[in-house]
Amino acid sequence: MLIKYAGVVIIMIWGIVFPAILLGLSKLFHPNNPTPTKLSTYECGLETQGETWVQFKISYFMYALIFVAFDVETIFLYPWAVRFQSLGLFGIVEMFIFMAILIVGFWYAWKEGALEWM
Amino acid sequence: MDANYSLMAIEIATALLAIGVLIIGLLVPKEQRYGLGYLVTIGLTGIFFLTFAFYGTNTKLFGGMYIVDDFSIFFKQIFLAAGILVTLAATLYVKKIGANYGEFFVMMVFATLGMMVLSSAGDFITLYLGLETMTITFYILAGFKKGDSKSAEAGVKYLILGAMSSAVLLYGLSLIYGMTGTVIVQDVAALITAGGGMQPALIVGLVFLVAGFGFKISAVPFQMWSPDVYEGAPTPVTAFLAVGSKAAAFAALIRFFLIAFPDYQAEWKVLFAALAALTIIVGNLVAIPQTNIKRMLAYSSIAQAGYIMTGVVAADAAGIKGVAFYLMLYVFATVGAFTVVMNFSSNTGSDEIKDYAGLAQRSPLMAAVLLVCLLSMAGIPPLAGFAGKIFLFSSIVSQGYLWLVIVGLVMSMASVYYYLSVAKVMYMADPTDNTPIVVPVGAKATLLLTMGITVFLGVYPEPLSVLATIASKALFMIN
Fold it and tell me: By the 8 A CB rule, do B138 and B111 touch?
């Protein structure tokens, strides 16, 4: 029975071995003349100035959380919209209840000042 | 689509209560929100009486995903009783914390809702949904004291360890789903038999489940989070966490193991018996040197989880009856004790046992309630804990687990030591500060109720015992 899963193991092993081979080959063949400019970290923006462990505004998290709530709402809206015809009145009522709950949450966040940039 | 939604009236009413209180909290100005706590108490009391109408329903909804039976109704009453008592006691304490007042009570109701879903869950997904609704609200509640580093530590610790335990539980569930191809708990048993019995992967899944649930009920060796979280969290939250979260996890655990793996009891009974013995021993022994009363109660609640697990080891109607009965009276003893702690700390700012010196002179009511609750947890007759322990231990004695009963009895005696050392401080020592401690009305009501019910159930356990029997029978009936 376990032999059925042999494919998974082979892919896992190949997944580890293959990049190692590629990196090894490139190490063998590429020319090597490093300069300070080449070695600098350029991919993730500018180099940091000063401490990296700084505090940043909690407001970012608030926006992120509210965004996630609406993101998830949209995910639920899509399948509902596709099956809308066959769901009938029940579907409409249920979706409105769902939206109402979310909107109460949004109203709450707004009223409590989560969207104000302080 | 043709499901009978009136069967979910309890959950719908609870959700409406939470959202309603949230909206009222928005409409009322900040200084006038202090009635919301009582509103939640009244609302939960209404729902509590509503639950009685559902005894004898015993049906499945949505093809077995949601189960409304006497077992789940009994557990819902446990959560509601805990919710009512805690919200009643907490009004003044939450006011003193100074954080958003309405939010606290809304979170309490949402946590109750999550527990209800957990106790009724008939499939893996509903189970997980209920579990997360409950625990996510508890992460927030544990860190509710803004600016208090201990409370923040409790919240973060609970979040990280809770996420880990959820991952373990989910992995176990996915293994069982992978081997059986179903998420419905009641179909698992038949599919395991059809699939050729207990595969090694299923055993691994079973062990993961024990670990995942073991974390939620704080069984040793998965208890490491509970003393820190219990100590740091605001005391009403600690009380609700100790009672509600534990009871809900037990409800789900019982339904899961007894219904999904009835033919493999030999495998998991041994595991639970070992865990129960370990939990009882470690919980009670580590409680002895504690100097902080919240930590002491945390370890004692770990030990209580061990006693309750002996009923799961029995795995029959008598054992489950013992679990249900014990959990209900555990609500009153624990909430009573924590209400005393809550009121003491909001008056004196201390949770140290040595500061309880002479409490009997400063507030005779608080000292009496703490004494009654602690002695009930220790199982001294004629208090409720004694009756509960009789039900639990007698259910396993006939099944050849006499050694576990002896461990339980010996450790109960050890627990009397640390419970009585608190009593000694309260009654024998002289107070350093003679000012009497004021008990607010809500907390006073909770104290009197918990003490009264603990004594009443010890003298006359019949009504609750009948209900617990009905609940335990329903669990096996609905198959």
Answer: yes
Going from the C-alpha of B116 to that of each of A70, B59, B66, B88, B104, the distances in angstroms are: 26, 16, 11, 20, 19
Q: How far is CA B191 from CA A4, A15, A33, B171, B267, in A?
A: 21, 35, 64, 19, 18
B1 compared with B234, residue with greater pLDDT: B234
- A108 interface with B at CB cutoff 8 Å: yes
Q: B26 and A101: CB-CB below 8 Å?
A: no
User: Mutate which of A90, A108, A112 to test chain B, going by most B C-beta atoms within 10 A?
Assistant: A108
- Confidence grade of residue B1 (pLDDT, cut at 50, 70, 90): very low
List beta partners, residue B61: B66
Task: Name the pLDDT band for B478 (thresholds 50, 70, 90).
Answer: low
| Residue B67 phi, psi dihedral angles, 5° rounding | -115, 125
Of B1, B23, B100, which is closest to A104 when you measure between CB atoms?
B23
For residues B1 and A90, the answer to whether their CB atoms sit within 8 Å is yes
How much is the average pLDDT of B6-20?
A: 91
pTM of this prediction? Answer: 0.87
pLDDT-based confidence at B286, cuts 50/70/90? very high
- The distance of B366 to chain A (nearest Cα, Å) reads 37
Q: Report the distance separating Cα B125 and Cα A102, nearest Å.
A: 21
Question: Could you list the pLDDT tens digit for every one of the 118 residues in chain A?
Answer: 677 788 889 999 999 999 999 999 999 988 888 887 777 766 666 677 777 787 777 778 888 888 888 888 889 889 998 888 888 888 889 899 989 988 888 888 888 877 787 6
Phi/psi of residue B68, nearest 5 degrees: -110, 95
Comparing alpha-carbon positions, the chain B residue that sits nearest to A87 is B1
The Cα–Cα gap between B429 and B431 comes to 6
In angstroms, the CA B282 to CA B295 distance is 14
Tokens (6 digits) for B230: 């219990």
Residue keyed to tokens 């009322």: B28
B24 burial class (0-12, 13-18, 19+ CB within 10 angstroms)? middle
The number of C-beta contacts closer than 8 angstroms across A and B is: 11
Q: Chain-centre distance of CA B60, in angstroms? A: 25
